[in-house]
């Protein structure tokens, strides 16, 4: 059912070559040095990776979600951190393309799809993570403008992005009171916190975005007042698939490193690869990734078709794939023994990077809540 087309195989080959040449050789150094490779992101943009499912009229690649998951798995085999940032950027670009006015699209999309301009998604706050409807950042009307005040937390690309898609409250209560705004980096009153010291994802900056009397015109509003929460949630469906794919890519890389290590390493007079218990272990790792990958393809196809169960399937795939990727990376450390704990072998970095995938884009506990609600409330 999900055999790749000739075009998809060519796409995967192109992305694999780029990732192998421009990401993989530098991933460990970028992690150690906390380097955000903006120049390489622009090279990715030249390949069309900054607007994967954006229409060609704005320079996008006009691909489907089923294509995107292939792309992000290949990118993450080389570096899950950079792959995840490209996913977040694409989520913002899709929101501008889908919900923006023609003026907004003409202004932002040409630079976003090439990644000449980077973008950040600003939903989470210090006191509002999984409970996104409890956000407190406010946007108050003042003549023909809005004045924004608040703090956003854990924002990827903060301080480097040219565009910040900010969710702010324009009414007192509930999801219906949330509106989306396109805030440019040069807006007076916009500032950033220090780069967070994190367990993983070191090759992309994560910081607070602080809005203090940030004034934007009415034309910066994305969609109508009160539509922001719906825009955010629709964007997250695709984002969850991409993060799931990033987890599979990282897990696959960890599996491949483990297979190579077991073939080379000897103990008790034989190769580790010839020990039955270790063969069972790598078999389980491969089976878990294969099963999760099949589910991800089903979910991506459902989102492409606009199927009624797409929300449930996206949440299911996000939970299953991110759990699978992390478990495989963790097992890879174990099968490498003491070497798995060393940075130079790369598997401990993969595990550190993939751990956050179980938390972001809606924690895996929230994915279970979504699926349970869909099943029991219809």
Brief synopsis:
The protein has 378 residues and is α+β, with helices and mostly antiparallel strands. The chain has helices spanning 6-23, 27-33, 38-46, 65-78, 80-99, 102-113, 228-264, 276-305, 310-335, 347-355, 364-377, and strands at residues 119-122, 138-142, 145-156, 163-169, 178-184, 190-192, 206-217, 221-222, 266-267, 270-271.
- What ranges have pLDDT less than 50 throughout 5 or more consecutive residues? none
Helix-strand topology string:
HHHHHHEEEEEEEEHEEHHHH
Q: Could you report the average pLDDT, rounded to the nearest whole number?
A: 96
CATH homologous superfamily caption of the largest domain: Butyryl-CoA Dehydrogenase, subunit A, domain 3
Number of helices: 11
| Overall radius of gyration | 21 Å
Strand order of the largest sheet: 1-4-5-8
Strand content: 5-15%
Q: What is the CATH architecture assignment of the largest domain?
A: Up-down Bundle
- What is the terminal separation in angstroms? 28 Å
Shape: globular
């Amino acid at each position: 059912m999900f055999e790749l087309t000739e075009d998809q195989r060519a796409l995967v080959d192109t992305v694999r070559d780029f990732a192998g040449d421009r990401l993989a050789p530098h991933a460990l150094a970028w992690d150690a040095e906390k380097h955000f490779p903006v120049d390489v992101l622009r090279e990715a943009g030249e390949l069309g990776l900054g607007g994967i499912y954006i229409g060609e009229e704005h320079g996008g690649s006009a691909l489907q979600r089923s294509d995107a998951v292939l792309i992000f798995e290949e990118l993450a085999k080389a570096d899950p951190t950079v792959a995840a940032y490209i996913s977040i950027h694409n989520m913002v670009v899709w929101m501008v393309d889908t919900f923006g006015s023609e003026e907004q699209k003409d202004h932002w999309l040409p630079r976003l799809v090439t990644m000449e301009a980077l973008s950040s998604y600003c939903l989470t706050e210090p006191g509002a993570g999984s409970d996104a409807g409890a956000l407190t950042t406010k946007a108050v009307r003042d003549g023909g403008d809005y004045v924004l005040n608040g703090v956003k937390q854990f924002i990827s690309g903060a301080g480097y992005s040219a565009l910040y898609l900010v969710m702010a409250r324009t009414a007192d209560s509930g999801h219906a009171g949330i509106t989306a705004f396109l805030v440019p980096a040069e807006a007076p009153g916009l500032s950033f916190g220090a780069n967070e010291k994190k367990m993983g994802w070191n090759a992309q900056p994560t910081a607070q975005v602080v809005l203090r009397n940030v004034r934007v015109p009415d034309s910066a509003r994305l969609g109508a007042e009160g539509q922001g929460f719906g825009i955010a949630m629709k964007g997250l469906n695709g984002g969850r698939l991409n993060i799931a794919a990033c987890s599979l890519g990282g897990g696959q890389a960890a599996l491949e490193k483990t297979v190579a290590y077991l073939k080379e390493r000897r103990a008790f007079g034989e190769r580790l690869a010839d020990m039955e218990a270790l063969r069972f272990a790598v078999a389980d790792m491969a089976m878990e990734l294969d099963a999760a990958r099949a589910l991800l393809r089903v979910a991506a196809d459902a989102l492409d078709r606009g199927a009624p169960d797409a929300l449930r399937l996206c949440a299911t795939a996000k939970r299953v794939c991110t759990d699978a990727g992390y478990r495989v990376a963790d097992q890879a450390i174990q099968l490498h023994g003491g070497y798995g704990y060393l940075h130079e072998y790369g598997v401990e970095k993969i595990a550190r990077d993939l751990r956050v995938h179980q938390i972001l884009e809606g924690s895996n506990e929230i994915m279970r809540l979504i699926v349970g609600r869909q099943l029991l409330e219809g």
